[in-house]
Specification:
Blueprint lengths: L32 H30 E2 L4 E2 L5 H20 L5 H5 L2 E5 L7 H16 L3 H7 L10 H6 L1 E5 L1
Length: 168
């Protein structure tokens, strides 16, 4: 009839983040939650500084101090800002040892669950899921808060891309 299934539950999470490489090397430790928070703030500030010239005009359109009127904000600049943010995270994490400037400052990097470097594909998935969740009302906060309760300190975008944030 065939071979029996392997022992254990195939849907259960692994007991360790990945199998250590051969020859006695140990797997890197998972990065701390506070360091991830501060690295994220650092990266957000950097992207904000780069994209602020694009959004200054939008602030003037959004609120007129003389008449105290609030108007609609054009979406076009927001898409450009989003694209710049995506490219910042995707390019740096894909081609700079899994690190952004914030992650490098705080000694972390993104890897695949098996410990191998995360390439452009998984990083693109990771960032796309993070952006979509942040656009959907409160799911961006749920995504970020997920690392507080997950034993592997993975946010939802890490789970979708099968990545981990580890010590560099």
């Amino acid at each position: 009839m065939g071979t029996p299934p392997p022992p254990g539950n195939p849907y259960e999470e692994p007991r360790i983040p990945w199998t250590p490489p051969p020859f006695g090397q140990t797997a890197p430790r998972l990065a701390g939650r506070w360091r991830r928070l501060f690295a994220g703030i650092t990266d957000t500030v950097l992207v904000g500084l780069v994209t602020s010239p694009l959004t200054v005009d939008d602030l003037r359109v959004a609120y007129d101090g003389a008449t105290e009127a609030v108007a609609r904000i054009p979406v076009g600049d927001g898409l450009v800002v989003g694209a710049i943010g995506f490219l910042y995270y995707w390019l740096l994490q894909s081609f700079w040892n899994g690190q952004t400037v914030g992650k490098r400052l705080f000694g972390m990097r993104v890897v695949r669950e098996n410990g191998e470097p995360a390439g452009p594909g998984p990083i693109a998935v990771r960032q796309a899921v993070e952006i979509v969740l942040s656009w959907l009302c409160c799911l961006g906060l749920v995504n970020l808060a997920w690392i507080l309760f997950d034993r592997r300190k993975q946010a939802l975008h890490d789970k979708a891309a099968r990545t981990l944030v580890v010590d560099a």
